[in-house]
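ARCHIVE CARD
CATEGORY: sequence design from structure
SOURCE FIELD: tokenized fold
FIELD CONTENT:
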């Protein structure tokens, strides 16, 4: 069973849209996105442009949909889709719950709300080597300190946890995590405190906006960010996309559910390979490949061969 994975903010690198395959499906996707947004989307992935949350999130949606369409042109479609954070928007397009143009408009609104809520001074850190329970225990003392509070944002793997907070809080927490036995504690290239209650108001605004966005029941299985479970209705997918910015992303649970449901080949959309690395580490018997690491003209062939 073929499953597509779509990465979130932090996976981006300068020029990643320019590195997409030079085929008709990708060109059409870039052209459509440019028309919808009223700008040349190839200006979004420069190092300077990617300092903007809006540019990063739009670029990630575009890259994910471009891969989906490239493979669809080769007769390959996903039986399951899951995306981490903003990657969920590309996943919703991939499972046909949301039109590409609507995904772009809603993703832009999401990023603008997040960026305006916290234009600076906040972000995310990735902690490797400690469990969620251990991170919770370390963070417990920060709960009554508004400026110093630490939130669990993503559970990407049993010992790979992302936390959110202010710059000062993250710097202090990284030191505490390392002292407690973490292998690594690294600030991510994300400038907003995603997936926590700091974005509650922005999430409420996006939920109100989404009421006028047309969604459909997904045609292939969509795995939610917040619940890490299959979502079957249009309203459930809408709620997942609109509210995931204020809730912890249960990525490892979502990955585990996909495998329990029969996923045998996981394909990560560009950019990077962080999601397939997580899968390969936790589930070495499940095949996982990153589109970014395979020659453009060999991707479909590689997928067919590995599906058997």
């Amino acid at each position: 069973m073929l499953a597509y994975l779509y990465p979130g903010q932090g996976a981006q690198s300068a020029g990643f849209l320019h590195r997409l395959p030079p085929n008709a499906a990708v060109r059409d996707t870039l052209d459509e996105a440019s028309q919808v947004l009223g700008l040349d989307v190839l200006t979004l992935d420069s190092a300077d442009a990617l300092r903007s949350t809006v540019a990063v999130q739009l670029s990630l949606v575009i890259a994910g949909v471009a891969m989906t369409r490239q493979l669809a042109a080769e007769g390959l479609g996903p039986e399951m889709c899951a995306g981490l954070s903003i990657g969920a928007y590309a996943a919703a397009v991939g499972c046909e719950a949301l039109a590409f143009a609507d995904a772009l408009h809603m993703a832009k609104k999401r990023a603008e709300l997040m960026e305006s809520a916290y234009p600076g001074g906040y972000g995310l850190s990735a902690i490797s080597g400690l469990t969620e329970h251990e991170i919770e225990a370390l963070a417990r003392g920060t709960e009554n300190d508004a400026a110093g509070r630490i939130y669990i944002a993503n559970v990407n793997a049993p010992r790979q946890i992302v936390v959110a907070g202010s710059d000062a809080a993250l710097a202090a927490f990284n030191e505490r995590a390392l002292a407690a036995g973490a292998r690594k504690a690294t600030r991510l290239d994300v400038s907003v405190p995603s997936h926590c209650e700091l974005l509650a108001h922005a999430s409420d605004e996006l939920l109100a906006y989404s009421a006028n966005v047309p969604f459909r029941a997904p045609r292939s299985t969509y795995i939610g960010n917040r619940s890490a479970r299959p979502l079957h209705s249009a309203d459930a997918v809408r709620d997942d996309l609109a509210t995931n910015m204020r809730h912890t992303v249960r990525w490892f649970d979502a990955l585990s559910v996909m495998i329990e449901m029969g996923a045998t080949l996981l394909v990560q959309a560009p950019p990077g390979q962080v999601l397939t690395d997580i899968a390969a580490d936790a589930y070495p018997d499940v095949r996982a490949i990153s589109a970014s690491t395979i020659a453009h003209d060999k991707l479909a062939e590689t997928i067919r061969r590995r599906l058997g």
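CARD ANNOTATION: The domain at 2-117+197-307 is CATH 3.40.366.10 (Malonyl-Coenzyme A Acyl Carrier Protein; domain 2). The chain has eleven helices and ten strands.
SHELF: design records, drawer C
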